[in-house]
Amino acid sequence: MFGDIARFLLNTIFTLFGAALILRAWLQVVRLPPYNPVSNAIFQATNWLVLPLRRVLPKAKRVDVASIVAALLAAVVFVVAMIALAGVDPLQFAPTIALVSVLTLVKWALNLVIWLTILMALLSWLNPSSPAMSILSQLTAPFLNPLRRVIPNLGGIDLSPILLFVIVQVLLMVITRMAVSLTMFGI
């Protein structure tokens, strides 16, 4: 029971922190203004890790390399902790830790896409004029706009979030299966 609680807490904490690091990089890719409450909260939560890395790592044109590397480091720590909690020596899985960490990072990013899409869909029904709606629209547009070109708008009903949700869920199943097959247990 203690192991299950510890795995749940580790998964929750690292998923939220990893998602914040990915969102930090994503905010810069979509050029969201840094002076909004969402950006400020993300920056405050992640500055302690990203700013020291930024001194060492160069910044690409629109990609915050330090945030991505920080997310990958968080994924490595998470994978090692989960392997150790399973009662297995992490050194035994040393060659696969890097691959499972990348899969974990992708899993966090896909979960972030799902949650932002769900929030945007709910907000579009409940309060479409909310200030958060523009932020969510800007963040999800790179994923939804290609789907909107494929799926016609049915009388004001946008089905692209549902299709995106299905696609991301399938990808999550594939990634989870890959991670399980590499480590013999779930991450």
UniProtKB/TrEMBL annotation:
Pfam families: CCB3_YggT (PF02325). The chain crosses the membrane at residues 6-27, 63-88, 108-126, 162-185. The keyword rRNA-binding does not apply. The keyword Transmembrane helix applies. GO terms for cellular component: membrane. Keywords: Membrane, Transmembrane, Transmembrane helix. PANTHER family: PROTEIN COFACTOR ASSEMBLY OF COMPLEX C SUBUNIT B CCB3, CHLOROPLASTIC-RELATED (PTHR33219:SF14), YLMG HOMOLOG PROTEIN 2, CHLOROPLASTIC (PTHR33219). Belongs to the YggT family. This is YggT family protein.
